[in-house]
Amino acid sequence: MHPTMNIRKPNSLFLLPALALLLTACGEEVSAGEAVAGGIGIWAIGSLLLLILVVLAVIDLIRKPYPMEKKLIWGAIILFLPYLGAILYFLIGRNRSSVF
């Protein structure tokens, strides 16, 4: 491959909801007990996906060449508001020089 070619990698965050949908899809009739267990499975998968989102936010924050003050502020937001903080970081904190 030519060294000046810039190939963009696909963002895996868009693939996670599709994977969750595939894992939770069910085509059979289920009883009430199985429905409760399936609901617990959905919560477990959702929690795992949110944990992955927080970890990706922290890794991205560490890798970015932001000033230390900005990293500390965003790190505190992600730490004290784990899921909401990670979502806010990806929506408004990434690649923006005006936020904090």
UniProtKB/TrEMBL annotation:
<protein>
    <recommendedName>
        <fullName>Cardiolipin synthase N-terminal domain-containing protein</fullName>
    </recommendedName>
</protein>
<dbReference type="Pfam" id="PF13396">
    <property type="entry name" value="PLDc_N"/>
</dbReference>
<dbReference type="InterPro" id="IPR027379">
    <property type="entry name" value="CLS_N"/>
</dbReference>
<feature type="transmembrane region" description="Helical">
    <location>
        <begin position="71"/>
        <end position="92"/>
    </location>
</feature>
<dbReference type="GO" id="GO:0005886">
    <property type="term" value="C:plasma membrane"/>
</dbReference>
<keyword id="KW-1003">Cell membrane</keyword>
<keyword id="KW-1133">Transmembrane helix</keyword>
<keyword id="KW-0812">Transmembrane</keyword>
<feature type="domain" description="Cardiolipin synthase N-terminal">
    <location>
        <begin position="52"/>
        <end position="94"/>
    </location>
</feature>
<feature type="transmembrane region" description="Helical">
    <location>
        <begin position="37"/>
        <end position="59"/>
    </location>
</feature>
<keyword id="KW-0472">Membrane</keyword>
